[in-house]
Amino acid sequence: MTPFGKHLNVKSRTKDPTDKDLFIEVVGLVNECWIRSNVIENEFSLGVSDYEEPFYLVIENLLYMHYGEWKGDIMLWWLFERFDEEGSVLPINLNDHAKEIEEEVFIETVEELWEFIKKIESKPKL
């Protein structure tokens, strides 16, 4: 028996994924799991948060280990805090200290999240 159980089929990759491919896949899957968890909690009144909390803590720590603090913070905000009570996407503030500009950015997709992080990375450090 594999460590993943008898019903999970782990496929080998046919090509080496890029960092962007892995980012989009991993963050996208965590997002799907979070949405499903909320549906189960809200629509079926099944409390799964106590069961799932250790898994989300592992994911959080792995994101911080791989991407670092500021990227991890942005990713976790996008995954867990980007919606208001009515389900509308909240903006994140992008501060360009060199130009003294602050901009509200709405990030709706995981691809937009990737591009947002890359945009910040490309800015000169103060």
What does this molecule look like?
This protein has about 130 residues and is mainly alpha-helical. The protein has one domain. It has 4 helices and 2 strands. Helix 2 runs antiparallel to helix 3. The chain is globular, with a radius of gyration of 17 Å. The relative contact order is 0.10.
Give a quick precis of the structure:
With 126 residues, the protein is mainly alpha-helical.
Cα(first) to Cα(last) distance is 53 Å
Mean pLDDT: 87
The general outline is globular
Q: How many separate structural domains? A: 1
Radius of gyration: 17 Å
The major β-sheet equals: 2 strands, antiparallel
Low-confidence stretches: none
Q: What distinguishing features does this structure have?
A:
126 residues, mainly alpha, two-stranded antiparallel ribbon, 4 helices, 2 strands, 8% strand
Helix and strand topology:
Blueprint: H1 19-44, H2 49-67, H3 69-80, E1 92-96, E2 101-105, H4 110-122
Antiparallel strand pairs: 1-2
Helix pairs in contact: 2-3
